[in-house]
């Protein structure tokens, strides 16, 4: 799932080399933290948070197949 978030984020931003994704797993839940360059923050969040919500939806759908819960945070 870390790779999925990384691929999506790098496709959206102007500075893909500054995309950093960290994943921590504890039991049945997974926490994914995405950080991008300050200039690219708007592109990852989108208008009214639509792109961020879409990223979370796609990752949650992938996690459901593995019977895991996912929390995606954007810094």
TrEMBL record:
One of its GO terms (cellular component) is cytoplasm. Pfam families: KH_KhpA-B. CDD domains: KH-II_YlqC-like. Gene3D superfamilies: 3.30.300.20. Keywords: Cell shape, Cell wall biogenesis/degradation, Chaperone, Cytoplasm, RNA-binding. The keyword Cytoplasm applies. It comes from the Bacteria. SUPFAM superfamilies: Prokaryotic type KH domain (KH-domain type II). GO terms for biological process: cell wall organization; peptidoglycan biosynthetic process; regulation of cell shape. It is found in: Cytoplasm. Its main location: cytoplasm. InterPro entries: KH_dom-like_a/b, KH_sf_prok-type, KhpA. GO terms for molecular function: RNA binding. HAMAP family: KhpA. A probable RNA chaperone. Forms a complex with KhpB which binds to cellular RNA and controls its expression. Plays a role in peptidoglycan (PG) homeostasis and cell length regulation. Forms a complex with KhpB. NCBIfam families: PRK00468.1. Belongs to the KhpA RNA-binding protein family. This is RNA-binding protein KhpA. It comes from Anoxybacter fermentans.
């Amino acid at each position: 799932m870390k790779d999925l978030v990384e691929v999506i984020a790098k496709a959206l931003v102007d500075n893909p080399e500054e995309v950093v994704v960290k994943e921590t797993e504890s039991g049945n839940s997974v926490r994914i933290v995405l950080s991008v360059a300050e200039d690219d923050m708007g592109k990852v969040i989108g208008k009214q948070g639509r792109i961020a919500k879409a990223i979370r939806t796609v990752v949650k759908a992938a996690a459901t197949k593995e019977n895991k819960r996912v929390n995606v945070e954007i810094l």
